[in-house]
Amino acid sequence: MNTSWKLPALAGYALLPALLLARTSLAEEPPTAAPDHGVWQKHEYSFAFLGFTSTYSCDGLADKLRVLLIAAGARHDAKSWPGACASGFGRVDKFARADLTFYTLAPAGSDTPAGGQRVDSVWRPVALADRSPRELGLGDCELVEQFRNSVLPMFTTRNVENKTTCIPHQESGSLISLRFESLAAAPHAPKVPPRGT
Fold it and tell me: Could you tell me the residue ranges of all domains in the chain?
């Protein structure tokens, strides 16, 4: 019996999975684009929560907002602290407030101030959903809606896809689904510029 053809065929079969794996891993890598340049912009905002389903203490609201700021691409030194509230620390307040101070990247252009430090930046995908980030739950649906409407416009974003649906006075049937790309500091770029910027 002639078996000389079997050896090359078996070698071909052994190489086929390796070639397919290499081809698949190349296809799954995201395209790398040259990083943009951005400059840090400071924002100060007084956030007053108005919702029907969930209530927050002022310090609880401040904590949730800081999570949303960082998740959306704000610089890591973002500050969120309880605003002027009628209730004390840890007590639910129907009109919870928080004061925010944070920095976002804006595209650097010809109108960038002379002292403005340019930062290498990239488009970073962001997905807000139930338990993403883990501190976020369905009860925060209206908070995400209000954050999207009042705070997210201060970020440089693109490809915003919002499927968030909040049903007042109940969590069942509500959905948190907000995806976008945010201009953020490149991994090698300094996250916080030197003092005075």
Answer: 36-105+119-185
- pLDDT score recorded for residue 29: 36
User: Highest mean pLDDT: which of 20-24, 83-87, 127-131, 164-168?
Assistant: 127-131
Q: How far is CA 162 from CA 123, 130, 179, in A?
A: 18, 14, 6
Amino acid found at 144: V
Q: pTM score, two decimals?
A: 0.75
C-beta of residue 118 within 8 angstroms of C-beta of residue 37:
yes
Q: Which token pair is 92?
A: 């639910």
At residue 65, φ and ψ (nearest 5 deg) are -65, -35
Burial of 189 (0-12, 13-18, 19+ CB in 10 A): middle
CA dist 150 to 103, 106, 107, Å?
Answer: 15, 17, 20
| Contact predicate 95/48, CB 8 Å | yes
Which residues contact residue 38 at a Cβ distance below 8 angstroms, ignoring those fewer than 6 apart?
Answer: 105, 106, 107, 108, 118, 119, 121, 156, 183, 185
